[in-house]
Every structure is written in structure tokens, then in C-alpha cells.
Design a protein that fits this description.
Layout lengths: L3 H23 L7 H14 L4 H59 L2
Helix pairs in contact: 1-2, 1-3
Length: 112
């Protein structure tokens, strides 16, 4: 016998945490998802043993959590890609500035 109300509560709680993480990410805040990851792993282990009618009762809440986690993953990837683009742009500007400065130094040395 499983404690279905506790499992539903955990699913709803983790869905809310995931929604909050998405909001924080959109606000540009840093996220530490370690506890979310650990709690999801623990919950999934507990859900593996659920059968019958209890399993059906938990399905909707589980699917809601999975949907939120998928959205969070997509938003994290988009944020990572945007950050990498910004880093690449800065790197290119630094290289260009360095090359321009190096060329100017070489031109000055030849003019002597």
C-alpha cells in the first residue's frame, strides 16, 4: 500500500518548485537545482512501486511535473545558448581589439 496523498503532495510541490525555478530563470537569477534533482529522483523511485488504482490517481500529477520539467529544461538550454552567444561575441571583440592593437604596435615599430 502506498501513501498516495503524500505522493500527490510531493508531485504538486515539485511542480510548483519547477514553475518557480522557471520564473527565477526568466528574471536572470542563478539557480541551484540540486535539491530539485534529488527530490525528483527519490520520488521516481517511490513511484516505481505504485500499482493499480493508485498509479492512475498519480498519473495526472506526474504528467504535470514532467511537463514543467521539460519546459525548464528547454528554458535552461535557451539560456545557456544565449550566454554562449554573448561569450562568443565578447571573445570576438577582444580578439579584434587585440589584433588591431597588435597591428598598430607593429606599424609604429616599422615607422621608426
Amino acid at each position: 500500500m502506498t501513501d498516495t496523498p503524500t505522493l500527490v503532495g510531493e508531485l504538486v510541490y515539485l511542480t510548483g518548485i519547477t514553475e518557480a525555478a522557471r520564473r527565477h530563470l526568466r528574471q536572470g537569477q542563478l539557480l541551484d537545482l540540486t535539491s530539485l534533482d534529488e527530490r525528483c529522483a527519490t520520488l521516481c523511485t517511490r513511484l516505481e512501486s505504485v500499482t493499480g488504482a493508485d498509479r492512475e490517481m498519480l498519473r495526472a500529477a506526474f504528467l504535470a511535473l514532467v511537463a514543467e520539467l521539460n519546459l525548464l529544461e528547454a528554458e535552461l538550454k535557451a539560456s545557456r545558448d544565449a550566454t554562449m552567444s554573448e561569450i562568443n561575441a565578447v571573445t570576438q571583440r577582444r580578439r579584434a581589439a587585440g589584433a588591431y592593437g597588435h597591428a598598430g604596435l607593429n606599424a609604429g615599430a616599422r615607422g621608426r
